[in-house]
Amino acid sequence: MHDVRSDGDAILRLDNVNKHYRRARSGQADIIHAAKDVSFELERGQMASLVGASGCGKSTVLKMIAGLIPPTGGEITLRGEALTGPNEHIGIMFQQPTLLPWRSVMENVLLPIEIREGRKAANAARERATQLLEMAGLAEFASAVPSELSGGMAQRAAICRMLVTQPEILLLDEPFGALDEFTREQMNVEFERICRSREATAIIVTHSIQEAIFLADSVFVMSPRPGRIVKRIDIDLPRPRTPDMITGNRFNEYVREIHDLLFGSGEGASHD
Amino acid sequence: MTDQQTVDPEVLIALAENERKTLIERTPQWLLVLLFGAAVVTVWHMAVTYSGISQLVLPGPYQVLQDLIFTLNNLFTGGYVAHATWITLVEVVFGFLLASAIGLTLGMIIGATTFGRKAIMPYVVAINTMPKVAFAPLFVAWFGFGIESKIMMAAFISFFPVTINTAAGLAATDSNMSMLFKSLEANRWQTLIKLQMPYATPYIFAGLKLAAVWSVIGVVVGEYMGGGEGLGELVRVAASQLRVGRVFAQILLLSLMGLSVFGFVTLLERYFVRWRR
């Protein structure tokens, strides 16, 4: 068994978190383990990726941390306190930008504040939102509507919306998976820069091995049925990460290691 | 570079398609509409002139035109047609507004609450399967011979599309957006007002447009049954006097009224759903 925990002061901690669904099939109850005994810790400022094939439970783990679905076992704690539902200290972002098409970009970015603290607080936060949009290169699109944005721009607006409440932990579910390859790489570089400048603690779920390595300090490799973490790999690459690293030797060694874990040449990937 | 490469390929395609177009395809639509209309009127005129049909049963185009001119003249000089048109318009507008209010409220209850979906929805569907026009005599008995019974009839006939479309629109909310609102700890009311209702507006307007047209039907049915002073009553009287030309002219006014309400709702839709383009 691999030890996937780290030492030091953890801000987020998952302790043997389980999620199973019951499915009735020909009279017999069939239990699907979407996530089994998932344990890891995240320190403040640490970026982690969950990588694995489709259906390995990585999105399930993220949604449990976000409080969108309850775990069937185990505990998730934020600064030592148990998480039981959605939390203002956690920001989440999906594969689709999910901007409300009837609101301007600015109004979309202010939405989390408007819902949590009301319209007044949202108006008071306009300056902060403007700064975020400037950082994301969207300053001149503040009053545009989402349909006027490209896919990459819309996803940058979604990043601003996630950051506007200054959450302690960022959760990203395949954030750039719907973008084309060029935009995706560009977004990875930008996102890494944004996270570094705010010392963000983040978990990125992805099925791209390169993206997982590029963004993270630690990559958690997951395998399906039951969905569990098979290995934690710490990425020892300097920050800021730059696109030329992707073709470097060290980067490719990590790619090979993760690839072997996922596609089962060697131990660890498939023993069930 | 050769000449061929400098020509925009799309232009070439357009040229090629143009060559293949038939005469009908190249004629502007307004001209075709006029030509077809003229053909129908001619056939109509010939049929009336040479078949020996009585003018009392089917008047010729010229007779109808005269009746139309008379009716419009009466309308614009403030005669009894103007009065009737005004009464009917008031009935249609209030019937439509009532239908919209009932439909939106009921639709929101059905679309946003489990109780509404499970307990109320079956009754709404059951009511819709009834031939609602058959209730007209009852509405006269309940609400009298004044405009109230017509307004109620119009609302009764046209609340259904608003209800169903509102409920369907609320249920159609994008699942990612719902997840976003859940992660932001939005309460039910916030989710309804800030997410579900705006998301449902295109659906709601589709229902409102149907209701606009159906309101006119409801008002006319009400007027046929319960007298009153509206255009429906004029149609009924003219028909009983075998003035078919007048009937045609008054029906034209009714359809123009339906078109106006429909157009007004379309304008509102353009404003409220402008984000959808």
UniProtKB/TrEMBL annotation, chain A:
Keywords: ATP-binding, Nucleotide-binding, Transport. Residues 12-249 form the ABC transporter domain. It comes from the Bacteria. Coiled coil: none annotated. GO terms for molecular function: ATP binding; ATP hydrolysis activity. Belongs to the ABC transporter superfamily. PANTHER family: ALIPHATIC SULFONATES IMPORT ATP-BINDING PROTEIN SSUB, TAURINE IMPORT ATP-BINDING PROTEIN-RELATED. This is ABC transporter. It comes from Nitratireductor aquibiodomus RA22.
